[in-house]
Amino acid sequence: MKTAVIGLGSMGWGAAISLLKAGFAVHGCDVRSDVLTRFTEAGGDACTTPASAVDTVDVVLIYVINSKQVEDVLFGQNGALETARPSTVFLLCTTMAPSATTAIAERLEAAGMQVIDAPVSGGHVRALAGEITVMASGPQEAFDRASAVLDAISAKVFRLGDRPGAGSQVKMINQLLAGVHIAATAEAMTLAAKAGIDLKTLYEVIRVSAGSSWMFENRGEHIVSGDYTPRSAVNIFVKDLGIVASEAERAGALTPLTATALSLFVEASEAGLGLEDDAAVAKILARKSGAILPGMEG
Question: Is 239 a catalytic residue?
Fold first, then answer.
């Protein structure tokens, strides 16, 4: 089976490498030439346009940043629909508003394609190991044809319905929790630094205590080490929590913790930290508190 991964960022790269390890022929598409060079060295087939990536493949995984980019790589100039064969299965792995996912899926289906709404979670380490979680919804036939691909990239696939949109709804709730937990981690570490607590010791205590979370364990280590290399950037959560806030308003649901966390990510982005690791929101709180975190200048 031939596959294509469009968007070789942190999660897309992990999916592509996992597919290569599982024995798939993988076409990888990205706008960055250095990434394509690395992909060729890893054994993949590098492509500069979506159209050239998908013309002979059975399953296409879309891992770009937002719904606008999804529309561009699918329907724009040199987009995937220019060359995709009828009944090609498209896995929409990008985090999008459920309404955007539904609209894009309908356009793909109208063009004779099969679609699985398949947002993912787990971080870049699990993506490289082929152990991500997929929150998936779509028709049975699409799942049947893409089952081997899903097995190669994931540890768990949750079937959430037979129509695209349901997967994106569940991913939206996951991102609400993820963003709030990152903000809470930043607040906790900043308070600890201000109080004079050794952050490494605090991290080791909390990660095995009731106050821990997956995000604390993962992003807390970034703060302790002062390493803000972007695995998932601040701007990602500006987008994702923005989706939560807008969809919550549409549904008439109150999300005060989302609003607070979103404001922190927006402030960090506006301060020039948008492309740093999302744990960099801690720098904003530290500056305001007069605290010094590892990796910050005194």
Answer: no
